[in-house]
Amino acid sequence: MSDDTVIHVESLSKTYDSGFQALSDVDLEIRRGEIFALLGPNGAGKTTLISVICGLVNASRGRVLVDGHDNVRDFRRARERIGLVPQELTSEAFSTVWDTVSFSRGLFGKPKDPRHIETVLRSLSLWDKRRNRLITLSGGMKRRVLIAKALAHEPEILFLDEPTAGVDVELRRDMWEVVRGLRDSGVTIILTTHYIEEAEEMADRIGVIRGGSLVLVEEKRELMRKLGRKELTLHLREPITRVPATLDGHRLTLADDGHALVYTYDGRHNGEDDQAGIAELLADLDAAGIRFKDLHTRQSSLEEIFVSLVRETT
């Protein structure tokens, strides 16, 4: 375990009384100060993993260290370092924003600190709503209150379970800014999400979980470099009706009614292999008398990569 590891998960498994195995030998390290996105289809084990780390569900096997504290043997010290924002919008409907956030701080035995509560509310654009009862707030504002409650006791780690579920696009982007601000202040963020663009926009690293097992954990940029399919589109000077037989060795398809050729190559190869393949293609095109006027490249999105990974593990 490295010095910058804030959460260490080792050989974690969870089997419920029904016999259903929700987690199977999960190993994971979360780095201090990063945004880590956990992706996976429904029932993959995302919420169970978070619940075990937070001490809400007992593991069948394995262990979890939170900032060096075993979350079973030293539950209190481990748990006080964690803020958890659940997916469900459950709250005390008739309490005010100020009261419910202040009460959450007291649950962790923290002394009253109005200045900290004010700082949290202001950072989440809730200060003007501090006297409002929760029942009067919009869904987006209620979700911000959940984050404020989770931050009330000054945790070092924040878990966000589907933080923007049911939130419109504009509020979703506002929430992204809030989360980035928390990360910039030193809080480690772990989020689960169904929105692929959310992970692509925000995460430093991405974990993909399926069937209770971690399929992959990777730096976002490295993941896209290694697994992302790339396309080189060549816009031709003159249209062609078919790809010449001399070019059969390349993965080429006609597009735009014969006005373009699309060359597909796999980012799993290293950059030198890619460059050599493209250079060979261009030479063969020239030999075949095919001229192009423009070209551009496109790399597959994280969503396409995710779908590919899930298919591979089905």
Automatic annotation (TrEMBL):
Q: Which Gene3D superfamilies match?
A: P-loop containing nucleotide triphosphate hydrolases
Give the UniProt keywords, A-Z: ATP-binding, Nucleotide-binding, Transport
Which Pfam families does the record match to this protein? Answer: ABC_tran
Q: Name the InterPro entries for this protein.
A: AAA+_ATPase, ABC_transporter-like_ATP-bd, ABC_transporter-like_CS, ABC_transporter_ATP-binding, P-loop_NTPase
Q: Check the record and name the SUPFAM superfamilies matching this protein.
A: P-loop containing nucleoside triphosphate hydrolases
Q: Start and end of every ABC transporter domain?
A: 7-236
Identify a single GO molecular function assigned to this protein.
ATP hydrolysis activity
Q: What is this protein called?
A: ABC transporter ATP-binding protein
